[in-house]
Amino acid sequence: MVRIDKKATRLYVLDTNVLIHDPAALYQFDEHEVVIPMTVLEELDKHKNGIREIARSARQVSRTLSDLTANVDLDQIRDGIPIPRLTGPEGHLRLLCYNDLKPLDPLEESPDNRLLAETCRLCDERPDASVILVTKDINLRVKAAALGVPVEDYLTDRAFDDSDAMINGARVYPDAGHDGSGLWDSLAVDVRVEREHDKVIYRLAGDIPREWHLGMLVSDSDNGASFEAIVREVGPKHAYLELLTNYRHGTSVWGVHAHDSRQNFTLNLLMDDDIDLVTIAGSAGTGKTFMTLAAAFQQTLDTKRFERIVFTRAPISMSEDIGFLPGTEEEKMSPWMGAFHDNMDNLLRDEDGASSWDHGATRQLLGSRVQIRAPGFMRGRTLNDTFLIIDEAQNFTPKQLKSLITRAGRNTKIVCLGNVGQIDTPYLTANTCGMAAVVQHFRDWPHAGHVTLKSVERSRLALAGEELL
């Protein structure tokens, strides 16, 4: 690997997948030079047709390049096209074209290998600069490293700095005690307990941990916690916590009880009128969909807070046209709704274990209240009095999730469910997917909450698979 001199001029050679992943990537390299090889321009041209997200991104990149090159002459193209920035010195864009490019022996002819050959030649021509290939293709990064070409992943739009990519939304203090006294001692803060109507409030004064944020869980244990509270307000020298409702015994949500502290926190977020946006992460079998549907039924059919439940998820592959499937919109989405139907079947079981979900009368009764919608057809709509569930949120880009969240109208609650370990969409990673972006940007919004579930509620085989595989 070639050592990069931080003081030298930097030339960032961008791969096609970087531009498709983030069409604004050209503006993310400060005052340095951005290089677009002819191979990348050709690949963008191949991707531009169609209605898929890749095609939209390719067209957006093409429009950006067209705007940058619209009013420049040949000399400016040779010297570098200015890239304007809001603050700081402007960068420059270079278009790289070699008429006599020699392939790298013994690599076969392919776009990736041509890109490597272009980068290697640029390295030879610019010994005064640090030439760095930027790509999200792991295999290409490995080949570049083998050839001694400086290479980096595109990390500019990482939603988090931590390696886990997703905050867990909870902080556990094993010595907190049933009244929080152990927690206050360990934090060296003063606490005042108050009652406001039916709520118990803990007002803290002192040095508050920097990792605390609005809407997070503070508890004394992950299992069997006796003290559980949500952070309602937080600052460097003060905070106040609200004691959670205990959904483990007695009180339930549509007959569903929590098994651990995080599940109890999840049900509290789902039932909280002050929380408009809930993000729930966790591996398969942690109860994300089951608890969310239970809370949706409770607030739609029982308390009548919402008029309807809308369930949507990304058809795989994302943004594929589902028009070739027969039937109505709901019938077209049915192949991707296995998790929804399984959970509905479990939630509608009676004491004898029989489920009414397959009965025509039950489906007709719930049909006006429970709707299945394709995300591509949600644009332009305003959802009022709606409990919106977005499943498999990790397969949405930040822009796609934004288009769904901004559909929220009066009295609407949105719940995003996902597992960043199961991303199926090209060009997305655990740190750059839409769900990670939503969690990051709404972290300090007082009407949002996030939790990462850990306990698998399926069979011992599923639990062993989660741990061993």
Automatic annotation (TrEMBL):
GO molecular function: ATP binding
SMART domains: PINc
Keyword Cell cycle: no
Keyword vocabulary terms for this entry: ATP-binding, Nucleotide-binding
Cited SUPFAM superfamilies: P-loop containing nucleoside triphosphate hydrolases, PIN domain-like
Species of the source: Halomonas cerina
Protein name: PhoH-like ATPase
Organism domain of life: Bacteria
Keyword Transmembrane helix: no
Family named by the database record: In the N-terminal section; belongs to the PINc/VapC protein family.
InterPro entries: P-loop_NTPase (IPR027417), PhoH (IPR003714), PhoH2-like (IPR051451), PIN-like_dom_sf (IPR029060), PIN_dom (IPR002716)
GO cellular component: cytosol
Positions of the PIN domain: 10-142
A family per Pfam: PIN_4
